[in-house]
Amino acid sequence: MQAVIAIPPFAALIGKQKTTELLMHPVAGVPLLKRIVLTASRAAASEILLVCPAALSDAFPRDFLQEVFRYRSGIRVIQFDKFNPLDTSSWAKLEVHLNDQFLWIPWNWVTTKQFLKSLPLVTMTSVDWAKPAHISLHEVSNDSTRLLPSPDTEGVRVTSPETIARAERFLVAHSGKVLDGIHTTFNRRLCRPFVRLLSHTSITPNAVTFGGVLISVLSAIAFAHGGYLYTVLAALLFYIAGLFDEMDGMLARIKFAESPRGTWLEGFADGLSYLLLFGGITIGLTHRYGRPAALMGILLLVGTILALVATSLQRRRATTADRPNEYLGRMYQLLDMDSGNWISRVVRQLQAFVRRGILVHYVFIFTLIGALPLIFFLATLGAHITWIVTLYFNRRFFAQSFYARATPTVNTIKETL
Questions:
Q1: What is the distance between the alpha carbons of residues 190 and 240, in angstroms, rounded to a whole number?
Q2: Can you list the domains of the chain with their CATH numbers?
Q3: Of the candidates 112, 142, 327, 414, which lies 20 to 30 Å from 380 by C-alpha distance?
Q4: What's the rounded Cα separation, in Å, for the pair 328 and 326?
Q5: Which range among 140-144, 222-226, 312-316, 327-331 has the greatest average pLDDT?
Q6: Phi, psi of 36 (to 5 degrees)
């Protein structure tokens, strides 16, 4: 897919320095035009056509690309005399560079990759040039699979400091995932003001991850003390650590800082947080119940380690090395496709309850009502069921014969999404 982004002609009239300041104004910590280009790239645009006013010096596009897009290939700069999307002659001159279909994205329209992917295919005669569009140079087919209902316009057109603030709120509000449930959505709402604040600092998502681990250590120490007030404090700290787990991903998405290494680091931090939680609970309950609690705790920790190892191996088999973040979505696809198997149906319904965004709620609630031993028992049972079921699905889904049968077609993926 090709994306076309045009710098307006007035940029050539205000000078190179002011033009650069305008295009590079930070929006949630990322320069405006860089955000537009990278959003197009995340929406599967393999080529970016950047149309610049011809009055700008040759040095501007070259310096611009080296400074801002040095890690992004597939960008072509075309200098153009007063390009106007409303003028058919402008498109006639540009047509030699255009694909049959392309994304039109206004230079100052802040949006999400999901919105760009959902745009229906339209002809040039029906485009509102102030908004993004998926355009065909030829007559659009009547095929109903391509003519989708026009989605509600999502995004903010940046024209002033007020719209920059609105764009940042929009980005933070849309920094979740499609698979977020009610618990995770609630957590992310609590995180929004902090994520927006962090986006204007040099703090990295990995630093936020380590901050969550530190709070998990404090939570484990409080659980180990035992006693009702200490355990309530510990559960509250564990909930806050869970919010840090939400914030690192949200911050990474709005700052385009996602990476395979960051995904694995987040997974490692989650696993360590579970071990700290269960270790602290084991010590605290051992003070109260003695040896039976210690034995149950050892059984829980062994089950947790086995579950973490099994799911890490499954992530490697379910995803490619450069996209480990697609693990959960891939497993949901496979479970849905295998719905004829009752085990797959049950696991698909119950899997969400072992996610950290949900677990933090129940740990806090059960601790508050004095039912921590019940969580202790359920966690022990769940940890061992998890590693056993994970090994079962490793064999069922990733044996060569099933994998070939379960690999979804393009249409299947679209239906699942």
A1: 10
A2: 2-157 (3.90.550), 175-416 (1.20.120.1760)
A3: 327
A4: 6
A5: 222-226
A6: -65, -45
Residue 106 tokens read as 């206004």
Tokens read off for 34: 């860089």
- 36-78 confidence digits (pLDDT tens): 888 888 888 888 888 887 766 555 556 666 665 655 567 888 8
- Would you say 164 and 25 are in contact if contact means Cβ atoms under 8 Å apart? yes
Q: How far apart are CA 335 and CA 307, in angstroms?
A: 18
How far lies 273's CA from each of 111, 181, 187, 217, in Å? Answer: 34, 21, 17, 8
Q: What is the pLDDT of residues 35-44, one digit of tens each?
A: 888 888 888 8
At 153, is the pLDDT very low, low, confident or very high (cuts 50, 70, 90)? low
Query: For the chain, what's the residue count?
Result: 417
Q: In whole numbers, what is the pLDDT of the chain averaged over residues?
A: 82
Distance of CA 11 to the CA centre of its chain: 33
CA–CA dist 100, 152 (Å, integer):
25
Q: The pTM is what?
A: 0.82
Show the 3-state SS of the chain: CEEEEECCHHHHCCCHHHHHHHHCCEECCEEHHHHHHHHHHHCCCCEEEEEEECCCCCHHHHHHHHHHCCCCCCEEEEEECCCCCCCHHHHHHHHHHCCCEEEECCCCEECCHHHHHCCCEEEHHHCCCCCCEEEECCCCCCCCCCCCCCCCCCCEECCCHHHHHHHHHHHHHCCCCCCCCHHHHHHHHHHHHHHHHHCCCCCCHHHHHHHHHHHHHHHHHHHHHCCHHHHHHHHHHHHHHHHHHHHHHHHHHHCCCCCHHHHHHHHHHHHHHHHHHHHHHHHHHHHHHCHHHHHHHHHHHHHHHHHHHHHHHHHHHHCCCCCHHHHHHHHHHHHHHCCCCHHHHHHHHHHHHHCHHHHHHHHHHHHHCCCHHHHHHHHHHHHHHHHHHHHHHHHHHHCHHHHHHHCCCHHHHHHHC
Question: Would you state the structure tokens that stand for residue 417, as one six-digit string?
Answer: 């999404």
Distances (CA, A) of 214 to 93, 244, 272: 58, 10, 11
Residues 297, 282: Cα–Cα separation, whole Å: 5
Q: What residue has token string 């490692």?
A: 268
Q: Are 317 and 394 in contact (CB under 8 A)?
A: yes
- The angle subtended at Cα 72 by Cα 246 and Cα 49, nearest 5°, is 115
pLDDT value of residue 241: 94
Residue 241 C-alpha from the chain's centroid = 19
